[in-house]
């Protein structure tokens, strides 16, 4: 049984560019959440998707947007990248509302 | 609003000694509580969760945690530390139907 998968593993972008990160949830899970983890910090909640709609959102600007597809996979898009967006981006999936969330290995984004 | 405080950003214990990682929470409603572990350059792995059943929760790798409502605590323990336990540990709180909020983490070092 495959767990949560994310792609790419690492990414380097320049300030002002746009980036798309991808996530496939654990089999049987229909809810996907995204988190940003800055170096030395705990993960910060960005948003959660369920039934292809954004259900909840953390304190992140509109530059951060997402999408969920009918197969429950999800994308995180960040526009107009800033140096401060450099972080590990984690995707987590769950089978019910805020049930135990299972995390993927993350995508390390570096903005130069 | 909910929050989590992890006391001690770094904890060192000798191999074979008791591991105690402290977590206090603040929540306006009965919370769901979680402990996650993160190994270097990896995502988060769920150790255990409390969801209002038994107050003593047993998790993977010999870890357990006790929910104490009177102390608003959910400390993580393991009777005997192994070298493989060296990692970053995160406590998280999630009131039902709300986002998962993480603490800032505790780095556990095992001394041979």
Quote the distance from N terminus to C terminus of chain A.
Answer: 37 Å
Largest sheet: number of strands, sense, barrel closure of chain B = 6 strands, mixed
Overall average pLDDT of chain A: 93
Query: What is the molecular shape of chain A?
Result: globular
| Spatial gap, N to C terminus of chain B | 41 Å
Offer a concise description of the structure.
Chain A is mostly beta strands and 112 residues long. Chain A contains no helices and eleven strands.
Topology of this structure?
The complex is a heterodimer of chains A (112) and B (112).
Chain A: E1 5-7, E2 10-13, E3 19-24, E4 31-37, E5 44-50, E6 53-57, E7 64-68, E8 74-78, E9 87-94, E10 102-103, E11 107-111
Chain B: E1 3-7, E2 10-14, E3 19-26, E4 31-38, E5 44-50, E6 56-58, E7 64-68, E8 73-78, E9 87-95, E10 101-102, E11 106-111
Parallel strand pairs in B: 2-11
Antiparallel strand pairs in B: 1-3, 3-8, 4-5, 4-9, 6-7, 7-8, 9-10, 9-11
How would you explain this protein's 3D organization?
The complex is a heterodimer of chains A (112) and B (112). Chain A has 112 residues and is mainly beta. In chain A, 0% of the residues lie in helices and 51% in strands. In chain A, the strands form 2 sheets. In chain A, strands 2, 4, 5, 6, 9, 10 and 11 form a 7-stranded mixed beta sheet that branches. Chain A has a 4-stranded antiparallel beta sheet with strand order 1-3-8-7, with no helix packed on it. Chain A is globular, with a radius of gyration of 13 Å. With 112 residues, chain B is mainly β. Chain B contains no helices and 11 strands. In chain B, a hairpin with a 4-residue loop joins β7 and β8. Chain B is globular, with a radius of gyration of 13 Å. Classes of the chains: A mainly beta (112), B mainly beta (112). Chains A and B meet through β5 and β10 of A and β4, β5, β9 and β10 of B.
